[in-house]
Amino acid sequence: MTNAAELRQYERIIIGIDPGTNVMGYGLLGVISKKPVMIAMGVIELNKFESHYLRLRRIYERVAMLVDQYLPDEMAIEAPFFGKNLQSMLKLGRAQGVAMAAALAHDVPIAEYEPRKIKMAITGNGAASKQQVSDMLHRILAMPPDSTKMKLDATDALAAALCHFYESGKPLASHKCSSWKEFIAKNPDRIK
Q: Which fold has domain 4-190?
């Protein structure tokens, strides 16, 4: 769904980005009557580029193309986490910065979220696995069965967009739960 008439049905569109230097995930979330709907998600494969600089250029080009295609109102991007490998962190930070620059060049405002915050917003558990995040997204957004084959980088990006949706307008995101059972009991409208 990419033509302008179809995109007008959404009150708001959020693009989520899961930065990476080998694979970068993206997800687009539309809002209709204050309810989130998945528009699209996918990955940008960067392994074929040997040079880190060529990968950065590809990230910029593809994010700019996605912004032109889907006309998002906002971007939600996962913040790099602090790891043990400084070189990996620097490369990941560059990838994130280039994706942000592509959005900013199109006047798209950006919100940045730590991985634990995103996991908490989606699953109620800041230490959830990528697979748990993906499984919850499928339930919350009633995603089609074929989307389960999507790479976890794509669902992580969609999770960033959904986290932003919750953080920017739904008080449910601030509810802390100690278990899945409690989360489901407190959030019946988020489970389909």
A: Nucleotidyltransferase; domain 5 (3.30.420)
